[in-house]
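task queued by scheduler; priority normal; single chain, no ligands, no partner chains; default sampling; output format set to C-alpha cells
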Amino acid sequence: MSRPPGAAPQVLPGVRPSPNIWGSPDVYELQNRGVDPDGAIDAALRAVHDWAGADVLDVGCGAGFHLPRYAAAARAVVGVEPHPPLVELAAARVRDLPGVRVLTGSAEQLPLPDASVDVAYARWAYFFGPGCEPGLAELERVLRPGGTALVVDTDAGRGAFGAWSRRAVPGWDPAAVERFFARRGFGAQRLDVRWEFATREELAAVLRIELGPQVAADALAALPGTGLVQPVVVRWRRR
C-alpha cells in the first residue's frame, strides 16, 4: 500500500478523481465530523439492513472514517478505495481493529469473491446515475442472497443545498438520476441532514471543497451561522 517517495499516485482505470477528498483530505475529515451529528443517515441505513453481525463492504471508503463505526457491530468489514494515499490513511486508522481490512480497488472491479458480503454501502459515490452500471453490477456480484446494496447521496432536486450542488456541477439532472435508480428497482428514503461545525471558517472550508469557490461564497452569504441542512437520499436494493 506504500509507494516510492515522490512517486505520483496511480489512478485505477475507469476511476473518476474525487476533487474534494482527493485534493483536501484534511478538510474532508473535518467535513465527516460535522455532517449528520444527529446520526440520521446511520439510523436510516440500519432500518433497511442492520450491519450487526454482518460482513460489511464500504465502497469508496476514503480515509476510512466510517469503518470503525461499522466494525463496532459487524462480523467483518472491508473498505475498498481506489486512491492510494487514502488507502494508506484508511489502513492506518483501522490497523488495530480486528476483522477490518482496507483494499485497493474500484467500484467497477471490487477485489472480493462472489457472494461474500451481506451489506454494501456507498456514500457520496453514485450521484449521477447513468454511467454507474458497472459498479452496480459489481455490488450485485459480491452480495449474498438476501444482502443489500445501500447508496447514500445528495438529493440534488431539493432545497438550497441541492440548488448549490446543481450550480457547482452543471448538467447534474436529479430527475434522470431518479429514473435511473427506479428502473433498477431501488427503494428510496429522503432525509434532511444537519451539518454543524465549530466555526464559520470550518463551514467555509468544507463548502469550498464541495461547491467550488464562487458557489461556496454565495452559499456562505445566504447562511447565517455555522451549519446548514443537506437534502439526502438513501437508496437500497436487496439481492
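post-processing summary
- DSSP finds nine helices and seven strands in the chain.
- The CA atoms of residues 199 and 226 lie 6 Å apart.
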